[in-house]
Amino acid sequence: MDESLEWLRERWGRLALSVLVGLGGLWWWSGRAVTQPPGILAPGDPVQTQPETAATWTYRNHTLTSLAAFEIHARVLSAERYRFDRAAELSPVDLALGWGSMSDSRVLEAFSIEQRDRWYFWRSAHMPIPEAEVIDHSANMHMIPANEGIARRLKAARVGQVVDLKGQLVRADGKDGWHWVSSLSRTDTGDGSCEVIWVESARVADHSPDM
Q: Residue 169, class by beta-carbon neighbours within 10 Å (0-12 exposed, 13-18 middle, 19+ buried)?
C-alpha cells in the first residue's frame, strides 16, 4: 500500500476517534445531573382543575380527550427517553418529578431513583420521610409535547433541574384499540397511577425562581 495513503487513513482514523470522543463528552455533559443546595425547590402541589367540557383533538393518528387542566412546578428526579414502545408514538420521554419534600436535596440523597418500562422506582435504606409522603409528592409522568420546541425542552431536561409545565391530563385512544388514560390523583400507586400530560408549555431551569 502506498505510504501516503496509509498515512491518510491513519489520520482520518484518529480524526474520527476524536470526533466520537468529543460527541461522547458532549452527550455526557448535556445529560449530567444538576447539583442543588439543600432546601425545598418546589413547595407547591400540582394544580388540577376539571374542564367544563371534555375537549377532543387528533394528534399523530390518536384521539386525545382532555380530563383536566394541569400545572406543575417540580424537580426532575429522573428522565427517560422512549423510542420503540407503543406509547413512544405520542410520548418520547417520561419525567419522574418531585415537589414539596421530594424536591429537597437533603431528602433525596437518601434515595436511589430510576425509571424503566414507563415506571418509576425508588429505594431507600433509611427512609427520611414516611412512604406516604414519597407517594404524595412524587410521580412518573408521561409527556406528550404539543410541538417540537416543547419536545426538545422536555428531552433535554436533566436530573436536578426545576420544570414548570402547563397543559392537560388526557386520555389517548389509537385507531387500533390501544388506549392510555391519565391518573387524576397524586396519591395512587401501581398500574394506571402515572399522569399522561399533553404539555402546552414547558420551562426548564437549573434553579427554582423561589430560591
A: buried
Return the DSSP state at 92: S
Correct CATH for 47-205 of 2.40.50.140, 2.40.10.10, 1.10.10.10, 3.10.450.350: 2.40.50.140
Average pLDDT, rounded, for the chain? 89
pLDDT of residue 52: 75
Joined grid coordinates for residue 75: 424537580
- Could you tell me if 104 and 39 are in contact, meaning their C-beta atoms sit under 8 angstroms apart? yes
Cell of 180: 392510555
pLDDT at 110 over 50: yes
C-alpha cell at 26: 458532549
Q: What span, in angstroms and rounded, lies between the C-alpha atoms of 123 and 144? A: 27
Where is 71: in which H helix or E strand?
strand 62-81
**Which residues partner with 74 through β-bridges?**
163
Q: What is the pLDDT of residues 45-68, one digit of tens each?
A: 999 999 877 899 999 999 999 999
**Amino acid sitting at position 62:** H
Question: Regarding beta strands 138-145 and 162-174, do their DSSP bridges make them parallel or antiparallel, or are they unpaired?
Answer: unpaired
